Amino acid sequence: MRDHKRTYGIYIRAGILCAIIIILFLFLTLPYAEPEPYKLTKEVIGMVNEITTEIDKQIEPIDNDVRPKPPQVVIPATNPDEGIATITPTDLIEDIIPTKPSGPEIEIVPYYKVEIKPQPVYMPQVEYPSLALQAGIEGKTVVQMLVDIDGKVIDVQVIKSSGSTLLDEAAISAARKSIFTPARQRDRLVRVWVARTIEFKIK
């Protein structure tokens, strides 16, 4: 009985050689099949729109009549004012609409980033509302004021309300009248929000 384990390598080599021979035989004997060109199933119609422009040339008329024209006769009017239409004088009123000068927006810098912070110059006394005073209403209002580059307050917002509209309005009114030194950031004037606490307490 043969030992196939010993002849295993011979079988492998013989099988590879037979496969190569068969591939070469098929490659040499089989005819070359040339692929057919692709044919469209539907006919595609292309439409091209042609736009033409015509330039009309204006030709100035040529005066072929070179004969001298007869002189115009001036007929004096019997009445100098006759035939002259008078125009009612009207007052011209120019409606000039003032326009606001446009320019770059002024930057608003947070308070903690400002190099030279604004300092209070004038802080007006807060007027206690008479109705709140009579009713014995007390409270504390915290507002923030937008200080412009000229030190004036251009906007006021209530951060924390006192719980009374009268007290909040009095605090806003006083905050709008406040004046500060302008804030500076990198050698230029900037806008900045400044907070202020106003306490209403009856003594």
SSE blueprint and pairings:
Layout: H1 8-29, E1 120-122, H2 130-135, E2 139-147, E3 153-160, H3 165-176, E4 179-180, E5 183-184, E6 189-190, E7 192-200
Q: If you had to describe this structure to a student in words, what would you say it looks like?
A:
The chain is an alpha+beta fold and 203 residues long. 20% of the residues lie in helices and 17% in strands. The chain is built from three helices and seven strands. It has a three-stranded antiparallel beta sheet with strand order 3-2-7, with helices on one face. Strand 2 (139-147) and strand 3 form a beta hairpin. The longest helix is centred in the N-terminal third of the chain and has 22 residues, at 8-29. The radius of gyration is 50 Å and the shape is rod-shaped. The relative contact order is 0.14. Residues 44-59, 73-80 and 98-103 have low confidence and may be disordered.
**Poorly predicted tracts of residues:** 44-59, 73-80, 98-103
Q: Gap between N and C termini, in Å?
A: 127 Å
Strand content range: 15-25%
Per DSSP, the total helix count is 3
Q: Based on DSSP secondary structure assignment, what is the total number of beta strands?
A: 7
Biggest beta sheet attributes? 3 strands, antiparallel
Rg (CA only)? 50 Å
> Could you state the order of secondary-structure elements as H and E?
HEHEEHEEEE
Q: Which class best fits the helix and strand makeup?
A: alpha+beta
Average pLDDT level: 75
Strand ordering within the main sheet: 3-2-7
Q: What is the molecular shape?
A: rod-shaped
Query: What is the helix content?
Result: 10-25%
